[in-house]
Amino acid sequence: MDYQFSFPYIWGATPDLLDGLWITLIVSLLSIIFSVIIGVVCASLRVFHVPVLSSVAAGYVHFIRSTPLLVQIFFIFYGLASLGFGLSGFWSGVLALSLWGGAYNTENIRGGLSAVDKGLKEAAYSLGLRPIHYLRLVALPIGLRVCIPALLNTAVSVLKNSSYLQAIGVAELTFVAMDRVAMDFRTLEMFLAIGLIYLVIVLLLSTAVRRLETFLKAPFNTA
């Protein structure tokens, strides 16, 4: 076997990879934001045992976590279109990743809210705070700080799972790599390149979240 690895080929493919990276970052950022919002809403419904809605949230989490993400992507992209609610590949991907991440963030945030000391809840209610005020002023600020590591894990998974969107034609990073491989048969170069790109992004995201976690914990350090 006489395969010659080519760094110049990777350099020549950089503009295409950067275009795909941009789509990956936009899809991932939107999905992470929406998944946190979904997680906050559904976790709050479950923690406060809101009639009917709490059960709906629990069913949503169970359904999403019990079915493959690729099936969910296909259902949203192809299934909704057959019902007359077709979305573009981009927004189908954002919706699928948001719902997937939202299910996991529901459990992440629910764990964080459950970790809040019950005495704080009793104190808040004794001061006349309504449940929504307790949630906004006490439970969420403390609970979100507790579950930051779990939220990071889900955010990283959303970023990596954005590669599934190449299956519905979204021109993200993996789609671009697959397209170049189909044309030039430079499999090793392309997948090494995108593997390193994903690794760098995950490391940067992890570093940023660790710094955020340190910043949020600073007021509570008594040293």
TrEMBL record:
Keywords: Amino-acid transport, Cell membrane, Membrane, Transmembrane, Transmembrane helix, Transport. The keyword Repressor does not apply. It is found in: Cell inner membrane; Cell membrane. The chain crosses the membrane at residues 20-48, 69-91, 188-209. It is a multi-pass membrane protein. GO terms for biological process: amino acid transport. One of its GO terms (cellular component) is ATP-binding cassette (ABC) transporter complex. GO terms for molecular function: transmembrane transporter activity. Belongs to the binding-protein-dependent transport system permease family. HisMQ subfamily. Its main location: membrane. It holds the Pfam family BPD_transp_1. InterPro entries: AA_ABC_transptr_permease_3TM (IPR010065), ArtM/GltK/GlnP/TcyL/YhdX-like (IPR043429), MetI-like (IPR000515), MetI-like_sf (IPR035906). Residues 21-209 form the ABC transmembrane type-1 domain. It comes from Marinobacterium lutimaris. Part of the binding-protein-dependent transport system for glutamine; probably responsible for the translocation of the substrate across the membrane. This is Amino acid ABC transporter membrane protein 1, PAAT family. The keyword Cell membrane applies. It comes from the Bacteria.
